[in-house]
Amino acid sequence: MTTTIGKMVAAATLAALTVTSANAACWSPASVSAAKVRDFEAMLRSASVRCSKEVPVIKAAYSRFVTLSRPAFVEANNTVRAHFAADNGLVGSFSAYNTFLASITNSYGPGTTGIGCADFAAFIDAANAEGAAPAVIARLADEAGASPTLVGQRCSNRVAAPRVVAMQQVAVNK
User: Is residue 158 very low, low, confident or very high in pLDDT (cuts 50, 70, 90)?
Assistant: First the structure.
């Protein structure tokens, strides 16, 4: 009897993983928005360094932005990390998340086409003036054209089956 229960649990777990693996790589609207917030922060960080001679107050304004935005960044980090954990498991998610952040940071090294230092300063000032709430940062990220490279597809609008994020081993008495 207990062997049968163990086999049923294993079969149900395998079925759940199979059903959800098709959606595992997709980016939900919330995770896309969170990725844009991370992208926007990297864009502004790079600009604050690159534009410091042209706009001397940008470093101080950026520092204020980071302080005000800390709750929004924590929320965005948690959302993006959860996306990677669903795809790669808890251990693999750290590497995937770090690779994602490095790719964003590296993309802004040479600068941004079509946006100048005065524009970056205006984005930072707008975020600071509006309290740097998550919704504000997401809106400003869209206005700035934040577009992180997302590995995988965006989720469809249909309702997806719940994901199995973590499994625990089930002890079966023999």
Answer: low
Per-residue b or e along 64-84, where b marks 16 or more CB atoms closer than 10 Å to that residue's CB: ebbebbeebbebbeebbbbbb
Verdict on whether the full-model pTM lies above 0.85:
no
- Which pair of structure tokens corresponds to residue 102? 């490095």
**Rounded to an integer, what distance in angstroms lies between the CA atom of residue 89 and that of residue 60?**
38
Radius of gyration of the chain (CA): 21
Q: CB atoms < 10 A from the CB of 155, how many?
A: 16
Instruction: List, in order, residues 6 or more apart from 67 with CB less than 8 Å away.
Output: none
Distance CA 155, CA 45 (A): 29
pLDDT in tens, 95-108: 888 888 888 888 87
The C-alpha angle with vertex 93 and arms to 9 and 86, in degrees rounded to 5, equals: 40
Query: CB neighbours (10 Å) of residue 60?
Result: 12
